[in-house]
Design goal:
Distance between the termini: 46 Å
Order of helices and strands: EEHEEHHEEHEEHEEHEEHEEH
Shape: globular
CATH topology of the domain at 146-196: Double Stranded RNA Binding Domain
Helix content: 25-40%
Strand order of the largest sheet: 1-2
Oligomer: single chain
Number of strands: 14
Length: 196
Amino acid sequence: MEKPWKCGDCGKGFNRPSELETHRRSHSGERPFTCSVCGKGFTASTSRLTHQHIHTGERPFTCSVCGKGFAQFSVLQNHQRVHTDQRPFKCSDCTGSFKTLWELLMHQSVHSEERPFNCSHCGRTFRRSSSLLTHQCVHTGERPFTCSVCGKGFIQSSDLLTHQQVHTGERLFTCSVCGKGFARSSTLLRHQRVHE
């Protein structure tokens, strides 16, 4: 199906003009929806609402395997694949396969030399707008995600969530062979190689 609303910068198509408007902000850097707690900006109001769960701690969707909670149902669905070997999203340019569509889309940029997102401070270019935003914290010194226990600041919310396990002692990912627990799924996967 033809998507009639095209981005003048990258050619991507959209079904609605409002979707195109939100997308164009990824090129312009405009982030008109601001979190009232930490000041982080977003291209869409729905993204801001989802982000605010970080501050409230609300995680209404729980994994039935490991008990980990999530702010969004779609993120829970993606997470549940860490407990399986399922990688349904295949790259058409190489043999790569991925657990989520988002991971596939992020991966596909490696097949392109295009780096359309430029840092206004140093001129460095990025394939993704999210990478540019994270990088810009290097120049501003901003660390918008702060641990409520020790006060340590982080550039990304995922780093804060991983750090908080230092205080809680949580080990959400358990080896099915030996029962050893890990804070990260990537560490569990690396560990499981010892049993092969």
